[in-house]
Amino acid sequence: MEKTNNESKFKAFLKKKDVQISFKRYFIDAMGAMASGLFASLLIGTIIGTLGQQLGIQALIDMGGYAKGVSGPAMAVAIAYALKAPNLVLFSMLAVGAASNALGGAGGPLAVLIIAIIATECGKMVSKETKIDILVTPLVTIMIGVLLAMGIAPWIGNAASSVGKLIMWATELHPFMMGMLVSVIVGIALTLPISSAAICAALSLTGLAGGAAVAGCCAQMVGFAVMSFKENKVGGLISQGLGTSMLQMGNIVKNPKIWIAPILTSAITGPIATCVFKMQMNGEAISSGMGTCGLVGQIGVYTGWLNDMAAGTKTSITGFDWLGLVLISFVLPAILTFVFGLILRKIGWIKENDLKLEV
Predict the structure, then answer these.
(1) Is 281 helix (H, G, I), strand (E, B) or coil?
(2) CB neighbours of 305 closer than 8 A, spacing ≥ 6?
């Protein structure tokens, strides 16, 4: 009887603190908010920085660097906001996000997601429980979050890096299979809460493998943007097509079948990129994992052409080069994913508002 009473009291305490241990709260609400935080820092920073590099404007390059530098805190605060954290908990997540992202390496966003959820809920439970709340709440939140980051973030980062090792293994295969595997894997990584750009950068993923990676990322971003146009209109087209397909992660958790069309598309465009157009990413490796985000992937391919011409390994940029870049980046992802999406809607695997964005 005493055990039952204690359980009831604990449940009542959690309810009072708005700690809802649920799949929706953690893997839909929190993950969707984290995608917004990532876009408002790392991705937009990369876009601004790339624009600055192309225009030769140092102020834009610096601005992009500042934005990218706060990606961990931005994601953590977004997650805490989605979990309805009190102010002191919300502001304390800046330190937690910074530590989790830095120690998580290529798996930084995933580390932030897991650690920020735990630290936020712990902070909420102690919030306003003492007369010295202004000391206790941030102390508990930051200590729990940073200690977790020190303990498990590197492990999470290693797990994410294993995805990168799989990509490197794939690059050693025949170009057809390599193109398919790399395109699918990097495309999936782009949409998951791990950093495909960081993985590509860490592995120096360039050349044909980099081209396949670009194809996979474009299939996800342009694919989801076009396939969900019915639900999200122009705003969704831009936020996903030039932003990030990670915005769909909450919907994927609710209905994984919506992921089928972009993945099938990436399995087709990857081999076309490597075997037909021989498309290579010889710009910065991080661009391999950016897709159409601010057109960073396409700018990277173009920069690679210029680098090859400067090195004497390429004589000129041909019409065939441009055709391949446009088809792989925009046309084929839009057409193929739209067609696959229609089929999935027809058979009832994608239902009304399954692709609707809440942000």
Answers:
(1) strand
(2) 282, 314, 317, 321
d(CA 230, CA 282): 36
Q: How far apart (Å, rounded) are the C-alpha atoms in residues 284 and 83?
A: 36
Spell out the per-residue pLDDT of the chain, length 359, in tens: 555 677 777 788 788 887 888 877 887 788 778 877 887 888 788 778 878 887 899 999 999 999 999 999 999 999 999 999 999 999 999 999 999 999 998 778 888 989 999 999 999 999 999 999 999 999 999 999 999 999 999 998 888 777 767 777 787 778 899 899 999 999 998 998 777 877 787 676 888 999 999 999 999 999 999 999 999 999 999 999 998 898 999 999 999 999 999 999 999 999 999 999 999 998 878 889 999 988 989 998 998 898 899 889 899 999 999 999 999 999 999 999 999 999 999 999 999 999 999 75
Using an 8 Å Cβ cutoff, are 227 and 336 in contact?
A: no
- Cα dist. 250→21, 26, 354 in Å? 16, 10, 10
In the 8-state DSSP scheme, what is residue 42?
Answer: I
Residues 87 and 189: their CA atoms lie apart, in Å, by 32
Are 219 and 245 within 8 A, CB to CB? no
Cα angle: 161, vertex 103, 26; to 5 degrees: 80
- Tell me the domain boundaries of the chain: 2-159, 173-346
What distance in Å separates the CA atoms of residue 41 and residue 160, rounded to the nearest whole number? 20
What is the signed CA dihedral for 95, 96, 97, 100, rounded to 10 degrees?
Answer: 120
